[in-house]
Predict the structure.
Amino acid sequence: MKNYPSPLEMLYKWERERPDDVYLRQPINDVWHEWTWKQTGQEVRKMAAALRGLNLPAGSSIALISKNCTHWMFSDLAIMMAGHVSVPLYPNLQANTLTQILEHSESKLLFVGKLDDWANVRGGVPAGLRCISFPFYTEPGYETWEEFTAGKEPLQEEVIRKPEELGTIIYTSGTTGMPKGVMLNFGSFGFTGTKAVEVLKVDKNDSFFSYLPLSHIAERILVEMGGLYTGGTVSFAETLDKFPKNLADTQPTVFLAVPRIWSKFQQGILKKLPQSRLNILLAIPIINGVIRKKVKHSLGLSRARNIFTGAAPTPASLIRWFKRLGIHIQEAYAMTENCCYSHVTLNDRIKIGFVGAALPEAEVKLSAEKEVLVRHQGLMMGYFKEPKLSEESFIDGFLRTGDEGFIDSDGFLKITGRVKDLFKTAKGKYVAPNPIEMLLVANPDLEQVCVVGDQLPQPIALAVLSETAKSKSREEILESLKETLEIVNGKLDHHETLAKIVIMKDGWSVENQLLTPTMKIKRNEVEKIHTRNYQNWYKKPEVVVWE
């Protein structure tokens, strides 16, 4: 097995070679603050010295909960440098989940940073657990970053962590049950960081924009590791409200969004420029170029060369819509368990509807059940404290993804559903909901869709309306959804055809615990609430039912 440089070794490299170049940029009250590689190194080394001063056992778990910011990066690297294991937590966790993860991970310390609603969550911190607050976001009652590091001299040595050493435990925001702790070692980070930079052809001239949770493997690899392994610049968003301006000010060369954000971008454009008018303008050659340029610049994508979508399936119709505007979205497919290294659609080989070909040195095959299996040097060590579950996750060294797929003659992978998400109708027929959901959300009036049907004669779709739809009359929505239902059912086998669409009264969110922190629908939780209504909804004569 080849050894690759660890994240710490990349930090040391840029400290030596480019000490005065800007690495991190963060807006505070609309003013951009910047940190060079040298300044970053000094902050990390000082915090690492303070952590060492605690005399914790080597390899102790240290957790951090914060939205993305400069000190998130500093904390992560300092935990590594001090010889410990970082446990990043989603900033929108519920108090009970926070308790469960902190206790399960045996965390000895918690960094508390940039948060929206900590007052309602801090009760989830186990009694006696020491907390350190970030600069700019000091939480009352906690020791501050400055107080904790006061009087500490920065570590002078270049600490080297071995490839086989545990580097982080990432608790996945699973759509079922409590989160599982994925163990990734420094070899995983080294392999993924090095190979991803090579295949995407990014370098020190590239810039990244960080706003999706760094506790999620996609942002951790693309942005944190992307910045470290290229020597490029990382800029942060200040708040949700200021996100559009911060992105437009940054104009990054690399950008990742989840499907829901691409949908929000689309809705924002259509509010200013209705589809009928947009179609007319895009049909005029000279105006076409002007419109494309203006849209890309206003979104903050005028310089972007790698534009990704991931974390959840993206409707092909949405990707085609943005393609007309000159925004070529590249689908990425991976998971925490394979350190976000599996498939990516490269910007010169986009095949809409597919998530790309396997990345270099990633072996991919399908099981007899068409489950996607992946093997490479960066796979997880297993699940923390879950030896049986860890063993069940592998077969002959290949990671079982749980996703059902199809590989075409060019080696491109199409995800066709979840192996475990199949349900059986009352007619004894199995239905895969995910492909049907992707067809339905092509309608911009729908924001979230969950296809269900266990023990119903035919499936039905539970749906949440988009902001676009909320400005329309019920009659307009009804006509739109009837048309969509007819189109979608025309593409399905008889046993898959939808009997109706049920419009939910309330949306699904992280706050009501029906979405994961990465905006995936918790199918089981949605079904728990609504299963009792399925038969009544099914019997109604209308094809579109309002809850």
About this structure: The domain at 254-302+305-418 is CATH 3.40.50.12780 (Rossmann fold). The CA atoms of residues 217 and 336 lie 5 Å apart. The longest strand covers residues 398-407. The mean pLDDT is 91.
